């Protein structure tokens, strides 16, 4: 398998539908209930370069992040876990 196809196959395995579901669950946990952490959906949207509406669609289960956004979301959530908790 040529390198490009092999690398693409490995990336597609990173964000499978099951992994995408786990990412959205982690995002739901980080965002909290509506109104709990005001502005977090907007923060995610800005960080990933998507609309707040799309983030809302992910949280509501109407859409799932694709490969590129899924990888960015993984990195974003990892960074948030390492950051200090907000006061």
* Beta strand count: 0
Spell the H/E element sequence: HHHHH
The largest sheet is:
none
Q: Overall 3D geometry?
A: globular
- Given helix and strand content, the structural type is mainly alpha
Count helical runs.
5
How many domain units? 1
Percentage of residues in strands: under 5%
Poorly predicted segments? 3-12
Mean pLDDT over the residues: 81
- Whole-angstrom Rg: 14 Å
End-to-end gap: 50 Å
Instruction: Determine the fraction of residues in helical runs and give it as a percent range.
Output: over 70%
What does this structure look like?
This protein is mainly α. It has one domain. 70% of the residues lie in helices and 0% in strands. Helix 2 crosses helix 5 and helix 3 crosses helix 4.
Keyphrases for this structure?
87 residues; mainly alpha; 0% strand
Task: Set out the fold topology.
Elements (H helix, E strand, L loop, with lengths): L2 H12 L2 H15 L8 H9 L3 H9 L6 H16 L5
Describe the structure in brief.
This protein is an all-alpha fold. It has helices at residues 3-14, 17-31, 40-48, 52-60, 67-82.
